[in-house]
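Table 4 source record.
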Amino acid sequence: MENNKNMKFHVRDCALVRMSTGFRAQTLREFKECIERVPESSIYHHFWGRFLQPQFDEPEYNNDFAAWVYHSLHEKALAEKLSVIDPTEFEDIESIRQELIERIEDYLFEYEFVPGARADEQFYFVQSQLVVLDTGLNLNEPKDLKEAVPQMSPGSIFYHFIDARRRTPEKTNDFSAWLVGWGKEYEPLANSFKQMDPYFGSLEALRAMIHQECIAFFNGGNS
């Protein structure tokens, strides 16, 4: 999203297409070795992919790695160490990869026994490709956000708020990038969006938070 004043904001939607990487693991050591070798897109998917997958209950752990370590290896302590990794706190995917590896290596060093899963509970590393769709919804000026955000699908929120961190030069969300181009008047709203951590929650909850910030800003006499 270019930061040009008076440029329309084109709302997009998206979906993830899952693909196999060919990597799979049954023991914790194999798991670590696969994490060292899989494409970055696989690391990204196993942290963020759950947001665009149907959830029938509240996930116990925040990423696929932690969930597998708990449910298939039954290593709760390590699962908790992996679950608290917040990908928004890292500069890039490679930094996240190294953090995963270090935490698993520390665990393997501490315990001589290498846990393994049953043959039917192996971890299959997948990657995903983002398919972007045009919704036909365009915003002409910042105040349009207040009415538009509640209409946006979870896929739109994912694309503009989460995936945007990989696309924008400032590694920020598309809403903030767009607002900055409209001048200092909208910097408080842009900054409030930047301060949101989208990881520990759902897209629906994130959409509600964005909407509340819009209501507070535009109903508070800022525009």
